Structure formats: structure tokens, C-alpha cells
Amino acid sequence: MSLSKIKLRINGKEIEAEVEPRKLLVHFLREDMGLTGTHVGCDTSNCGACTVLLDGRAVKSCTMLAVQADGREVTTIEGISSGDDMHPLQKAFIEKHGLQCGYCTSGMILTSFWLLSKNNNPTEEEIRKAISGNLCRCTGYQSIVESIKYGAQLMKEEEKGEQEIRVR
Amino acid sequence: MHPSSFEYFAPKSMEEAIGLLTKFGEDAKIMAGGQSLIPLLKLRMASFPYVIDISRIEGLDYIEEKGKFLEIGALTTMIEIEDSELIKERYRILREAAVQIADPLVRNRGTIGGNISHGDPSNDMPAVIIALDGKLEITGKQGKKVIDADSFITDSFTTVLQEGEIMSKIMIPVFDGSSGGCYIKQKKNAGDFSVAAIAVHLSIDKEDRVRRAGIGLTSVGPRPLRAEKGERFLEGKRINDSVAREAANIIVSESDPTSDFYGSADYKKKVLNRIAVEAINTSYERAMVR
């Protein structure tokens, strides 16, 4: 079977690889790149545990071929924190108990990240609609919704803080 | 999970894509967003020796009014339809259908061309385009041709597309001031396919009578259906609840559902009846807001 050459950016890093065309992006990320923060939940394109950002948009990496990411930018959960400093959304999920088993969490956070990039002040309804493709089987969603609201608030505060520093 | 092996091509132009499709014939499958196809491939419900990924073809991703038509490029994603200001303001029914397709993650990749060309009788866009008297542009070796949307899907997962042809554009007659429509989708779970769904679009005259009715049905037949008798019945009438009820009975008589996981044929007809009444009344109310 012939391999396809791909060149893409993953979490800001330029990557060149050879993949079988049939390889799903999620397997490429987990098995070839070692980025196991992206989970395989259902294998049937329903659960959203494998959510990553493709050029900034939240997509199911199990419903995409690795070759389709050629020339694109992929961001996984490993790519949203800076060093040991967690992203405000990650902090918010911890503080508001937005997870129990943690299986859906990376997908939930990346979908929220996409939502907040389009709309930094979403209503509860907008949050619930945005995460409708991410299934959680333990928290019952209430604390996830609260985590996203709180994350949005933390992100705004952080942005404001940075602006103040710049002014000083 | 891994699909069966295939050779993959990502042509950058329409000519190149048509060349590959012509060369490989029935062994080739077109992939756009892949949101229906990849699940089928990885669950091994289908396999093809050659996958032609058309998503890198330039210039098939647009939403614009051009003369008498609203034109949508086949590679336009559902999320682009959902976020389009033009569609939000002037073509509400398209947005109403788009936001009910699967979930946002799927809509970030899924395209309107794929939703129609897949030929799934449970996909939502065909019924809407039928109700709007839409047309589809097909590009092939011989150039482009335009056909009526209601003749495109001939049976479950079967379209009129011949070897080397790609459905390239969706064309919807520009709405005039006195029309209104809606899409109602009855489903068991968020993000699911429908038990039954209906698209209704009504244009009314100065006397508030229906000048033109368009009705498309999802999930209640081997293919997306046009409820022609229902359309004829509504034309020339002012709508009230009893007219809507009578029309709904006619529409149900034109449906042909089968019993499956989503419900018995009888249940689907009952659901269709209820949503047909609601869709006719709502469309008429919207058309009356001039």
C-alpha cells in the first residue's frame, strides 16, 4: 500500500510524516505523534471525545483522514496550555468540577475553545447547543456548562489583565 | 478503527477531479466533508478502491445572490450556512434546517453538496431545496448542466450523477417579499436523524391566497419526496387550521415510510401529520409578515 506524504502544523510545530491514506487523524495523533490527550470514545462518530481544532474549528478527528490534514493546522488539548500554565478553560473545569472520569474533557474543552473564539460571551443556550456533539456520561452537563461560563469569564479577565500590563 | 485500504487523490481543480472520476468509473467515490462517508468506510459498511477528495478544489465555497438565484457552492459547510448573515436575514428556512443537522462538530466539516449528493432519504437539505423549487448544477466532461432538485435523487443513496460528474452548485430562486417557510424535524435525540421532517415554503398573493406552495419530505420514503398533491391543494387558498389539517392528510397519503429503528410506518405517518399542520400554519404566518 502506498503511503502519502503529509506536512502540517500540530500544536504550533511543523510536522512531516508518511501515512496510509486510510489512517484516521485520531490514530495518527495518538499512535504516531503520541498525543494521547485526544481520546477515542465511541468509534462511531457520535461522542466527540476525539475533538481537535482544525484551522481553529472544532472537528471530530475520528471522522477525518490524516491525509486531509495536509497543509492544515491541528490543535489538540496538549496545545492549548503554555508550559505548565494551564489554559483558563482547563482551570475553570477543575474549579467548577466540570469532569468526573475525564474521558470527554479534552473534547469538551476544545469545543468550548472554538465556541469562545467566535463568541466570548455565550448564553447558556448557546453553550448547550455548542457542546451538543460532545457526550458526557457522568456529570450530567450542568457543571460542564458552568465551567465553560466560568472559563469565558477567566479568559476575559486574563485579556484585560494583559491589556493593563501593556498600558503600564 | 480503520477503513479498508484505498488509493487517495485530492485534485485541486474540477477538470482534474472529473478526469480521475472518469478514469476510475464505479471504483471511485467522491468525498467532500466526509461526515457521512468516513463513518461508512470505517465501519466497513462500504469500501471503494479509489477515494477522490474534492474538498481542495478552489471556488466551490460561496453563498451569494446572483440575478434570480441564491447560489451556494457545493463545498459550502453547514456552519457557513448557519453563520451567513445573508441566510440569517433572507433565507431563514435554510438556517433552520442547517442547525438541526447532526452537531456543530459535524457541521464544521459537512458540506451542503455532500448532504444532497449522498442521497440519504434522511438527510435534511434535499427536502428543503425541493420545497424551495431549487435547481442543481452538475459539472461533467461535457461541461455544466442545470436540473431540477426534485429529480436528482432517484432512490435511497442513488442519484442521477453519471460517471465523471460532480454536483457543483445549489441554486434557489430569490425569495420575493411575500413568502415564508419553515423546516420542522421531529427526532428522538439531539443530533439524530429524524423520525419524519417537512419543509414548507409558501408564496402568497395580494389577497392572502397561496400563489405557490413547495413541500419537501425527509425520512418518509425511499428518497426525499415532493408532496405534489399537497402543494396543489394549498394553491389558491387562504390558510386556516382546517385547511392545514386537510392538507396534512393529503401530504401523509403521499408519503411512503417503512418501519425501522426510528418507529413504525404508522407512527411516522402520525408524526408527519402533526408536523405538516404546524409547518403549513407557521409558513403562512411568516409569509403574511410582509
Topology:
The complex is a heterodimer of chains A (168) and B (290).
Chain A: E1 4-10, E2 13-19, H1 25-32, E3 51-54, E4 57-60, E5 73-75, H2 88-95, H3 105-118, H4 124-130, H5 142-167
Chain B: E1 7-9, H1 14-24, E2 28-31, H2 37-42, E3 50-53, E4 63-66, E5 69-73, H3 78-83, H4 85-90, H5 92-98, H6 104-107, H7 112-117, H8 125-131, E6 135-140, E7 143-148, E8 153-155, E9 158-159, E10 166-173, E11 179-187, E12 194-204, E13 210-218, E14 225-226, H9 228-234, H10 241-254, H11 265-288
Parallel strand pairs in B: 1-3, 2-3
Antiparallel strand pairs in B: 4-5, 5-10, 6-7, 6-10, 8-9, 11-12, 12-13, 13-14
Helix pairs in contact in B: 9-10, 10-11
Explain this structure to me?
The complex is a heterodimer of chains A (168) and B (290). Chain A has 168 residues and is of the alpha+beta class. Chain A has helices spanning 25-32, 88-95, 105-118, 124-130, 142-167; strands at residues 4-10, 13-19, 51-54, 57-60, 73-75. Chain A has a 5-stranded mixed sheet, covered by helices on one side. In chain A, α2 (88-95) packs across α5 (142-167). The longest helix of chain A is centred in the C-terminal third of the chain and has 26 residues, at 142-167. In chain A, 46% of the residues are buried. Chain B is globular. In chain B, 34% of the residues lie in helices and 26% in strands. Classes of the chains: A alpha+beta (168), B alpha+beta (290). Chains A and B meet through β4 of A and α2 and α6 of B.
Poorly predicted sequence stretches spanning 5 or more consecutive residues of chain B: none
Q: Treating each run of at least 4 consecutive H or I residues as one helix, how many helices of chain A?
A: 5
Give the mean pLDDT of chain A.
95
Largest contact between chains: A-B, 34 and 30 residues
Number of E-state strands of chain A:
5
Poorly predicted sequence stretches spanning 5 or more consecutive residues of chain A: none
| Proportion of strand residues of chain A | 5-15%
- Please give the domain count of chain B: 3
Q: What's the multimeric state?
A: heterodimer
What fold name stands as the CATH topology of the largest domain in chain B? Answer: Uridine Diphospho-n-acetylenolpyruvylglucosamine Reductase, domain 3
